[in-house]
Amino acid sequence: MKLFRLILIMVVTSLFCSAGFAKEDYTMASGRVLKNAYIMEKKPDGVVVAHDAGVMFVKYSKMSEDFRKKLGYDAEKCAKYEAKKRKNKKRKRKRDAAKNAKDAKFKKELNVRQGKYKIYDLENKIKATELRIKRLKKEIPKLEADSKNFLDKAVSLSATTSGGYSNSNRGNSIWGSSTSSSRNRNANRTEVKDRFRAAKAVGEEYSSSKFRLSNYKDELERKTLQLDKMKDQLKMLKRKQGRAEGKKGFFSKIF
User: Fold this and answer.
1) How far apart (Å, rounded) are the C-alpha atoms in residues 116 and 110?
2) Residues β-bridged to residue 50
3) In this predicted structure, what is the pLDDT of residue 207?
């Protein structure tokens, strides 16, 4: 494609070099001098000229009358060509304006849809956070009651175990070491061990409930702060969405 274009330019150059200035200096009406200028292409309203400093388009209106005649200038053809160019430019501006308006409309609609999705997503997050806070507020008093019950039970078992063991020792020291007393002591020791295990298990349950209670309280505080921030963000998004949808005045304050 590039080779074809180069050949075409060479052919056009060879055709028109004889009709105008060819590899010679040319002084324009403005006084500018084009060194080694030659015509590359002729158009109804001017010519494309190559020279040492580059390539430029020279309109017939900037040439002398004699030179215009030499190049075959046709005023009627030039006027029609320029009118067609203006018409094409106007049509292009109209197409560009329509395309820009279409793009702007699409962008606005896209922003509106994205804004609605962000609001919808944030509202769902707010609902989920509110449900979690509601559940935490319901669970925390239960955990506090369970922790208190476990603690009271552990203290009661520990006291009973300690007291039962000391009483059995005193009884054995008074009545001596008979066979029945030995069996009683063994039974008491077994009972003490069982109560100790029960007290240990209750203590572990107390520690677990206390740990969960602490975590729930921390989560409640964190979720409450998050909820306040999300609600503020939702208000801001709704105001922004109202402006994007073109709502004004009273309705923009509501939405």
Assistant:
1) 10
2) 38, 55
3) 82
Strand order in the sheet with 54-59: 22-27, 33-43, 46-51, 54-59
If we measure between CA atoms, which residue out of 45, 1, 46 comes closest to residue 20?
A: 46
Q: Looking at residues 138-155, what average pLDDT do you find?
A: 84
Tell me the mean pLDDT in the region 78-100. Answer: 92
Which distant-in-sequence residues (6+ apart) come within 8 Å of 35 by Cβ? 25, 51, 52, 53
- Stated pTM of the model: 0.54
Q: Which of the four pLDDT bands, split at 50, 70 and 90, describes residue 63?
A: confident
Q: Work out the percent of the chain whose per-residue pLDDT is above 90.
A: 33
Q: Is residue 184 within 8 Å of residue 170, measured between CB atoms?
A: no
| Measured distance CA(242)–CA(255) in Å, rounded | 6
